[in-house]
Amino acid sequence: MLLAKTFTSSTFKVALIAILTFGSAVSAIFLFVYLSTTSYVRSHADRAILADTQSLREAYERSGRDALAELIQQRMADKGFADGIYVLADPASTVLAGNLAEWPSASADLSGWTEFRGSPPAPATMNAPLIRGLLTTFPSGDRLLVARDIGHLDHFSARIRTAVILGVVLTFVIGGFTGFLVTRRSVGRIESINATSRAIMASGLDKRIPLRGTHDEWDAVAENLNLMLDRIQTLMGEVKQVSDNVAHDLRTPLTRMRGRLEKAYHTERTAEADQALIGDTIADLDSVLRIFASITRIAQIETQARKGGFRTVNLVEIAGEVVELYDAAAEQDATRLSLAGEREVLVTGDRDLLFDAIANLVDNAIKHGRAGGEVTVASETVEGRPVISVADDGPGIPPEQREHVFKRFYRLEQSRYTPGNGLGLSLVAAVAHLHGARVELLDNAPGLKFRLLFATAA
């Protein structure tokens, strides 16, 4: 099955195209080398033949046939011309001088370049050598052949041709085999990912793609997919937790409403009792509606649907309005609510969302801070970055729970009987993310400090 997928995969098809392209280029290079080499060797021999022919023609024209025949005999006796082949023949092709017994039958032309096979020195063991020469016909009809044994060139060309063919074949074979191995490896890793995906669909998110420890791109892909699965599993867990918390938070007001209605159904009705029943029911329904409104608003913020309302705003003014709004609530708990920092800290953002975020932080600080304590809202610029912080001197949040407080419906008090729905800090986190800000939870010694650090000033 893996073999069939290997041959039908797009990776293998791309590899074949690459192999054909590369093989064609290598073949063209080898062919160029072959033609260039043989042409160079042949031209070297041709220059020697042409020079020798020129000197012999000059001797013939200067002194006649007998002088040329004598010069040919001298050349044959000279070791410097040992590789030369000379034939002087009359118009009837009768050999007058030279080192061939007869005029070559393959050289019937009157003039020009010719090639023919000579008689092999050892017929049983060697092929006839290849001879290349230049034919010259004089006005008297006498004929001259000056040639060289280029058998070594023939042998060299054959070896070059064989090397070219083997090189091209090896290129395609090695390239095809390498492409097959690479494709098989890729298909194997893809199949491993597919198998894990099928297992996840069949049994759940507890499966992970195995890593081979090669630290290559496939391991990187597998690691990223595993991180994505971890994130999905975490989100699924958070969705389940949110669902459980929503059910718990809705069950309480709905149960109260049902209990009151059932009690009213079985008791004698009065105008005063009906009025109280209606008022309590409306209050519980408002609590339920606030939960859904908060969830909807957080979802809208997280989808960045509010970026169209971004303007340059002053955090100091927004913080001042929040302090003014919560001043009465702070006085009820004997909490001192104060504003500190610079006169102007500008950021680009949505004024209403920033107001809500700061208000939620101040509300939490007043509710969960120390009774009779102090809450400080500060706006400042730190290293060119706008910062707003809300600090209290209450019990704070344990370090191990700080990363969880921004989850929806999360509460430090797990019984969930205290007022609130656990969505305030989730809204703060969503607003911070929308504005590119970072949320920090720091020890205030004693108490806790929330800081919103914006990326750049407006």
General description of the model:
The protein is α+β, with helices and mostly antiparallel strands and 458 residues long. The protein folds into three domains: 2-118 and 125-156, 2-Layer Sandwich (Beta-Lactamase), CATH 3.30.450; 221-302, Signal transduction histidine kinase, dimerisation/phosphotransfer (DHp) domain (Helix Hairpins, Orthogonal Bundle); 307-453, 2-Layer Sandwich (Heat Shock Protein 90), CATH 3.30.565. Helices cover 56% and strands 16% of the residues. The protein has nine helices and twelve strands. It has helices spanning 2-8, 10-63, 65-77, 151-203, 217-266, 271-302, 315-332, 351-368, 424-434; strands spanning 84-89, 95-98, 112-117, 130-137, 143-149, 311-314, 336-341, 346-349, 374-382, 385-392, 438-443, 448-453. The strands form three sheets. The protein has a five-stranded antiparallel sheet. A hairpin with a 5-residue loop joins strand 4 and strand 5 (143-149). Helix 6 packs parallel to helix 9 (424-434) and helix 7 (315-332) packs parallel to helix 8 (351-368). The protein is rod-shaped, with a radius of gyration of 50 Å. The protein starts with a helix and ends in a 5-residue tail after the last strand.
